[in-house]
Write a structure and sequence with these properties.
Blueprint: H1 5-35, E1 38-41, H2 46-52, E2 53-55, E3 65-68, E4 71-76, E5 83-88, E6 96-104, E7 114-122, E8 125-132, H3 136-142, E9 148-155, E10 161-168, E11 171-181, E12 187-193, E13 196-202, E14 212-218, E15 232-243
Antiparallel strand pairs: 1-15, 2-5, 3-4, 4-15, 5-14, 6-11, 6-15, 7-8, 7-14, 8-9, 9-10, 11-12, 12-13
């Protein structure tokens, strides 16, 4: 087929139109997430999950999570450094409450696997719940029993602060992180386990630093003493977000 000048012009205009429509939809989506002030995820709907969540995994060759029986299941293979992570697609999180309901399975003692529920901006601005066996030193420090894992509540920097609570294996637990206005209107962070406050820390920064919210299962060296010898898993049953509006 011989293309005329008019064919090329029509093709060019069609491309511009399609690009404009795509950009408009992307702008609508960005605006939607920017203005979102409350959200509940129950991990029951595939379409909702694909819209509201993105893969943020590291060191994996395949997807390490799936919706299963109205939960999201995350796994990591034994002896690897896999870090399975999903990320809430709202990227401007500030003052508010963040809640995760997570299943705490049985884990091998002192192996490098951690369940994570956390807010992340960068390595200096990160607020974590991390659940794992812990290394032998940490377990001894809190006198953990065989059927207890360790819950680390941590601000990575600005300032650094951390505490350890004990948590029973083979149970569901509710984790809540609250960011309210503290000194100089900076974040005052509070960590709760099953409704009980376990840690509080005044941070050196405020809403200029905006977060992303994540769920994870990661084979990371600092949570134990040795590589994993079995496949690990966890389930998240829900994630809830509610902004403190001003």
């Amino acid at each position: 087929m011989k293309f005329t000048k008019n064919h090329y012009i029509a093709s060019f205009l069609t491309t511009i139109l399609l690009s404009s429509c795509l950009n408009t939809e992307l702008m609508k989506e960005k605006s939607f997430f920017k203005d979102l002030s409350a959200y509940v995820e129950d991990f029951e709907n595939e379409e909702n999950f694909k819209r509201y969540w993105s893969d943020d995994s590291q060191n994996t060759k395949e997807i390490k999570y799936k919706l299963e029986n109205n939960h999201i299941k995350l796994t990591t293979a034994k002896g690897t450094k896999e870090r399975a992570k999903i990320k809430f697609n709202k990227t401007n999180l500030t003052f508010g409450t963040y809640e995760w309901r997570v299943y705490v399975p049985k884990m091998r003692l002192s192996e490098n696997c951690s369940i994570g529920a956390f807010l992340y901006r960068d390595d200096k601005h990160e607020l974590d719940f991390e659940i794992g066996s812990g290394n032998s030193k940490d377990r001894k420090e809190v006198a953990a029993k065989r059927n207890e894992l360790l819950l680390f509540c941590t601000s990575q920097q600005s300032p650094y602060g951390s505490t350890i609570a004990k948590i029973k294996e083979e149970n569901w637990c509710n984790l809540k992180l609250e960011l309210s206005a503290g000194l100089k209107n900076n974040y005052l962070a509070k960590w709760y386990l099953n409704g009980d406050k376990v840690f509080e820390l005044q941070l050196d920064y405020g809403r200029r630093f905006k977060f992303e919210a994540l769920c994870s299962l990661e084979n990371i060296h600092f949570i134990g003493d040795k590589p994993t010898s079995v496949e690990n898993y966890t389930y998240f049953d829900s994630f809830k977000y509610k902004a403190f509006l001003k």
